[in-house]
Amino acid sequence: MWKTYKWKLSKNLSLLFIACILFQLTAFAQQGWIEQTSGTIWPLTAVSFTDSANGTAVGRFGVILRTTDGGTTWVSQTDVAIVHLEAVSFTDSDNGTIVGHYGTILRTTDGGITWVSQFSGTHDRLMGVSFIDSDNGTTVGYEGTILRTTDGGTIWTSQTGITENHLEGVSFTDSDNGTVVGHYGTILRTTDGGKTWKTQSGDPTERLNAVSFIDSDNGTAVGYEGTILRTTDGGTTWTSQTGVTENHLEGVSFTDSNNGTVVGQYGTILRTTDGGTTWTSQSSGPTERLNAVSFIDSDNGTAVGYEGTILRTTNGGVSFVEEEEIAEIPTDYTLSQNYPNPFNPSTSIQYTVSSRQFVSLKVYDLLGREIATLVNEEKPAGNYEVSFDAANLTSGIYLYKIQAGDPSSGSGQSYTNVKKMILLR
User: Fold this and answer.
1) Bridge partners, residue 28, by sequence
2) Looking at the DSSP assignment, which residues form a beta bridge with residue 260?
């Protein structure tokens, strides 16, 4: 619960003046991922942006959402199809294709104002689609379905007899070079536009859900149990990047050989800036499963998931940006969401106090039992960060509570706030 403080007008004006000066000198702390209003509660399964303004998200029960202002507003395009939609690929702001269950293929050439149903020739569930221009595209799905078009979908040609495994994701970088992934670690590669496909070696025990190539050599595939596979030679060799997470991973987007983002269950967001050598967990806020992510450059990206979740970043998902360190004078009491969240086994908690006061910050379980005392002392005005190590705790939801006294109030504890955090092992 937030406490409203009454300040004298002169103090308000002074603080406002200081804040204006600081704003010109340094960047304030920014939330890396901002939740947007989707207008739907249905799960969103895929998203495709062509630039910082134009994007499309699709989902269950025929949901199609379109934005032309970077997600500030999302407009529902209704009565197009009532089937579950699984994937979307736009090559520019006008031309895009959506695929889904029962062999559904929908095509627009006017930015989604109108959608035309195309004949796929199959009733299988289509799970992935990749277009490299307005004409050349590939869609994949269950029972080893691979369909190819060179005329914008007027004709879809089935490429059969390659595999019977369910296929989940596809990524083409040009009209010749493409990679498909699916169940049982399936990885298929073509260098001739799908005329022939070669099986590559992945992890035969895990399901692969998505793949992203930025050129014919550099690609990343992700899947169940935290599987991340990386290649720099077009898939001749795939290297497993282990120990990053155990959560199922659902989507991946790379914009160059170094910068990429992976999303998955429990709101998992992982970010690399060195081609996957190291991965950093980012805080998404919501804990719903994230199904897909689309970046148009190293900074601007969008992730979608269950319960209509849409998250947007314009700084690569970094939670805090500082251009220059300046001693900022806090104007209020705050308690931030821990980062990362979910976490294993440690996380950081940031809080702010606006005057010298006694601060208590404690961790509790859901039964209200005190687990740890992180802060229990008088603090001067400032911004603080404290680490919490849960190495000896079991997986679950925990609460952290701050109580701070404002000497001017004369009422002892005058600010209290409680937030939850999730420990996942």
Assistant:
1) none
2) 254, 272
d(CA 118, CA 83): 14
d(C-alpha 87, C-alpha 79), whole Å: 18
User: Which residues touch 68 (CB under 8 Å, ≥6 apart)?
Assistant: 53, 54, 93, 111
Residue 406: the pLDDT is: 55
User: Cβ distance 172 to 212 under 8 Å?
Assistant: no
Q: What angle do CA 184, 259, 230 make, to 5 degrees?
A: 30
Q: With contact defined as beta carbons under 8 Å apart, do 261 and 275 qualify?
A: no
DSSP state of 406: -
* Cα–Cα dist 294/252, whole Å: 8
Contact 93, 84 (CB under 8 A): no
Closest CA to 42 of 385, 288, 399, 286: 288
The DSSP symbol for 344 reads: S
Question: Quick check: 235 and 219 in contact, CB under 8 A?
Answer: yes
- Give the global pTM: 0.70
Place of tokens 């106090």: 353
Burial class of residue 174 in the structure, from the number of CB atoms within 10 Å of its CB (0-12 exposed, 13-18 middle, 19+ buried):
middle
Q: Which residues pair with 404 in a beta bridge?
A: 359, 415
Kindly state the tokens that stand for 416: 């209290």
What residue type is 39 in one-letter code?
Answer: G
Strand ranges (E), 214-309: 219-223, 228-231, 239-240, 249-254, 260-264, 269-272, 280-282, 290-295, 301-305
Q: Where are the alpha helices (DSSP H) in 115-192?
A: none
251 by Cβ neighbours in 10 Å (0-12 / 13-18 / 19+) ranks as buried
Encode pLDDT of 312-344 as tens digits. 999 898 754 333 333 466 778 899 999 899 988
| Closest by CA position to 342, among listed 259, 266, 234, 231 | 266
| Sheet with 105-108, edge to edge strand ranges | 85-90, 96-100, 105-108, 116-118
Q: Which residues contact 231 (CB under 8 A, 6 or more apart)?
A: 217, 218, 219, 220, 237, 238, 239
Peptide bond into 204 cis (omega under 30): no
Structure tokens at 132: 């490299």
Q: What is the pLDDT of residues 82-118, one digit of tens each?
A: 899 999 999 999 999 999 999 999 999 999 999 999 9
Q: How far apart are CA 55 and CA 40, in angstroms?
A: 16
Distance (Å, whole) CA 209 – CA 189: 16
